[in-house]
Amino acid sequence: MLNNPTLKKVIEDCGVHLYDSEIVKENERQIVRIYIHHPEGVTIDQCTKVSQIISPILDLEPPVSGEYMLEVSSPGIERPLKSAEHFQLSVGEKIKATILEDGEKTKIKGTILSVDGDQISVEDKNSKSTKEFSFDQVLKAKTYYPW
Question: Global pTM?
Fold first, then answer.
């Protein structure tokens, strides 16, 4: 949604990555949500800083017509992996994924070992073997925390 390279650079200058963004409508209000990521977790101070810095930019180039509310937050411990970059940012974390392998849906649960371009290596929790697949094969994936 917010593919403005200047906005992405400004967010990265705050010491965090632009993870994702979305526009939703809740209770008749438009909400622009910006998700930021940091390997050591996202703090409230980081969210506040990003919000204060990008708010004037969004005032100049509004992402929606009419009034909206800006929210900046972490994508959470359990978050969707929608791009190869999301996998890269999540190396070492546990994931659940459904991939297309030889025309069949295959479920994988394990730890991301590495990401090289769009090639992803995961240590499968059950078989303890390394599964390798490309991002193009991913139907659905998210990080998870073993509560």
Answer: 0.84
Mean pLDDT of the chain: 93
Strands of 6-137, DSSP E: 17-26, 29-37, 69-73, 94-101, 104-116, 119-124, 130-134
pLDDT reported for residue 2: 60
Query: What's the full length of the chain, in residues?
Result: 147
- Report d(CA 42, CA 74) in Å as an integer: 6
Q: Where are the domains of the chain?
A: 5-73, 84-143
- 3-class state of residue 25 by DSSP: strand
Q: Which amino acid is at 45?
A: D
Output the 3-class SS for 44-80: HHHHHHHHHHHHHHHHHCCCCCCCCEEEEECCCCCCE
Q: Residue 10: exposed, middle, or buried by beta-carbon count in 10 A (0-12, 13-18, 19+)?
A: middle
d(CA 68, CA 32): 7
CATH of domain 84-143: 2.30.30.520
Fold of 5-73: GMP Synthetase; Chain A, domain 3 (3.30.300)
